[in-house]
Specification:
Layout (H helix, E strand, L loop, with lengths): L9 E2 L1 H29 L11 H20 L5 E4 L3 E5 L4 E5 L3 E8 H4 L10 H4 L6 E7 L6 H7 L11 E4 L4 H21 L8 H5 L3
Antiparallel strand pairs: 1-2, 2-3, 3-4, 5-6, 6-7
Helix pairs in contact: 1-2
């Protein structure tokens, strides 16, 4: 079986920026827990009590794992055109959007889609670098999942507010658009050229032996 064509991986910038924000905090907590654990273990501190030293060590290990996750997670969140679907990947969830569901792709002015004046104040730090950016809009006939679930796995700013459309922020939206269009055209060409199975015509039924 021939290998199916695969496009490039385009990092999801919104997801990458959100994860990177926790990197410094996770490292600071890791160092704090390790220092406290050492001081308590060596009896340099009377509080927290020495029996709690294992809990401090556990906290250090958990926050260390969180810090490592913030290092690798941005590389694991991407959009990738595949032979018959668009893959949207995060470290914990993979969404496959069939090309039969996609009916249009278009450039989107991110600031016009999500005007800074109506964006929640708590999210402005996340969106600030992208207000002058162009995203790729992928219009679909219907959402593959309920919007509430999609917002949970991705972001509320990953979904267009006015129609079923994914707003994909990547470094090179034009290349993503070109690869996606090529994959969609190739898939539709295969569907048109696929031969039909053998059938029985009315003439065959009426033909006498």
């Amino acid at each position: 079986m021939a290998n199916q064509p695969v496009g490039n991986r385009f990092r999801l910038l919104l997801y990458e920026r959100r994860i990177k924000r926790f990197r410094r905090s996770a490292l600071s907590l890791t160092l704090m827990f390790w220092v406290l654990w050492y001081l308590v273990k060596e009896n340099y501190l009377e509080w927290p009590p020495p029996p709690n030293a294992p809990l401090l060590l556990a906290g250090a290990l958990v926050t260390l794992i969180l810090w490592i996750f913030t290092l690798i997670a941005p590389r694991m969140a991407y959009a990738q055109p595949r032979a018959d679907h668009l893959r949207l990947q995060t470290p914990i969830y993979r969404l496959k959007i069939s090309y039969r569901r996609i009916h249009n792709t278009r450039p989107i002015d991110f600031a016009k889609t999500f005007p800074p004046s109506i964006v929640r104040r708590s999210d402005r730090w996340l969106l600030q670098p992208f207000f002058g950016a162009t995203a790729l809009g992928v219009d679909v006939t219907e959402w593959p999942l309920r919007p509430a679930l999609l917002k949970l796995f991705f972001s509320r700013y990953f979904l267009a507010p006015d129609q079923p459309s994914f707003v994909i922020l990547v470094h090179d939206w034009m290349t993503l658009s070109n690869q996606l269009s090529s994959m969609m055209d190739a898939q539709r060409g295969v569907s048109r050229e696929r031969p039909r199975g053998p059938g029985i015509s009315a003439a065959d039924i009426l033909r006498e032996d």
